[in-house]
Amino acid sequence: MGSNIGPAPRQCLRRLGEMETMAMYSPACRLPDELWHLIASQLTRNSLNNHFPVELIAVNRPLLTFYLSLVYSNVCWSRLDKGVIRQLISLQSPVPAGHVKRLRIHAWFIDSIRAQDGSSADRTRDTLWKLASSFITKLFAKNTAHGVPITATLETIGAQYDKVFSQTSSSNRKSISSKRFSFPRAIFPNEVIITAMMTAMQHMHNLTTYSFELRHLPLTNSNMRLLRAARTSFAGNLRRLVLHTTIRRLASVVAQADFEFLDQLELHFDYDVTVGQHAIGISSTDDAKDQEHIETELYHLQTHVLPFINALRSNLHELAISSTSTVDLTALFQGLDTFPNLRSLVLNIYFDESHLSDAQPLVHFLTAHKTTLLHLEFKPVTPPSTGATAGATFYGNNRSNPPSTRPDNAPLAEVAEGRRRQSWARIQTLLLAPANEGLLRNLESLTVPVSLLHTRNVDDSTGSTHGNPTSASASMPSNVTPTLWQTISLIKRSLPSLTSLAILDRKLSYAELIHVLDIFSDKPFQLKTLYIEVLVMDSMLLKALATRLLGLKNLVVVHAAGGLDVVSAHSSFACRAVQCIWLPATYAHVDHYESPHELVY
């Protein structure tokens, strides 16, 4: 949002001191800052597009602070445009930069600048060079005014560039490409932007969350400079680190990410494009080479990633792992230490046997932390298709299905959901084992999917399944599917302390929803947050939610498109302070869910 609103007017910042002196004798100056914050929040809510009236920042320091926090608390550098240029110019000053709390950097932001530096396209090159010229001029003027020039050569470079560019007509600007190589390196937009970003990062003394997304891109010198700058600038305050790249490249990234006081870590293992196609069900011409790449990933996981995570064992409170990598994550859970202060675990990974060959280490990790874990999220990623018969094992066993509902004719989203839910069945079986009865007892927040296949009894020692129905299924009502009933049984194990619940991958009927709500029949005030997916959104369903969950504060419902009367939906909770979010059914058909619990906070 900051890049769209633009920087605060400079004259307001310049005159703030004398204005505060004048305001000392005003009754308004005696109001506490908290009250001014409430006033500013109300003004923002009542304004057009929820923008704070910028002309009010000159009233006093609390309103200015509120404005700066509103504009600069979240900074994302993902593409080069005029908004980012304006934002970077403002962030060269410690005042606005000091209000940045969360910084997100996309590596392709730098990669695209480097690629466009050498582009032969006239329009793209001219646009970038105009931005660079404007940026150099403004940046130098701003820093010179404060007595802090970025480099001693920026003024000369800017003047030289302006002279060459202004004397070159549009039809002859292709000749610039031959001249620009004689310019000092700092004239390149890539170098200018990198320098400005590093300067801004040095001023972000209050930053608490840092996200760096490299994805599949190479780790260039520019990216390494940003990583080193982050380590230098944020080492003392950073609490949350988010890294998004392949396991092989993550090994190099974590070498520059040894933040001492981290207590929240989020790692995304991306698919490595160098791994062969056989891993995703497509024939490969060189399986040996593909296997070598997979073993290389496993090596980096064990020798670089695991030591990095385990080094944080004393302070880590929250751990989130997301993966679309081909590597077998069994080694990850086998190698993780015990984290004495771990409160939250989020797993957005493949749960099928190709990517988690042995699920017991995962269960052992949960067991080791069952007394400390308060927040647990299982969010399965859809396993890759293994050929033309993909989905047959998930739908073909139901012989009552007509041919039109078989995998070959099923919607792609439905087939993908089937693979995802089936992969979860094995994990659910282990969690329902008698030996794991108290595994979820202390949870306050739980996100759990509904499996597709009816799981069976599990051998406590081996994890193998048997054909006899579980005892939980023996008392199953006739209007509930076995898979949902087993999910309900799993939820009941965390009932003593559960206040937040999210049920994924199952569109509940009214009867099924009632059985879910019956879990809390003896504790109607206990559940505060609920995320569900439903087949039909009607008045009966809304009434059930409103009357059975009397303590509900936050509600997220994924419903069929066109099946919601928003007025009726909100009126059902009109007498209570319940925050409601209604989402279309298409929201549920994604692998990387936004955390259901974060939607309402």
Question: Could you name the key traits of this structure?
Answer:
disordered N terminus; alpha/beta; 601 residues; 13-stranded parallel beta sheet; globular; single chain; Leucine-rich repeat, LRR (right-handed beta-alpha superhelix); 3 domains; 13 strands
Describe it for me?
α23 links the parallel β12 (554-559) and β13 (579-584). α3 packs across α4 and α13 (247-254) packs parallel to α14. By secondary structure, the protein is of the alpha/beta class. It contains 23 helices and 13 strands. It is globular, with a radius of gyration of 28 Å. The model is unreliable at 1-11, 117-125, 148-155, 167-188, 276-284, 387-409, 455-474 and 588-593 (pLDDT under 50).
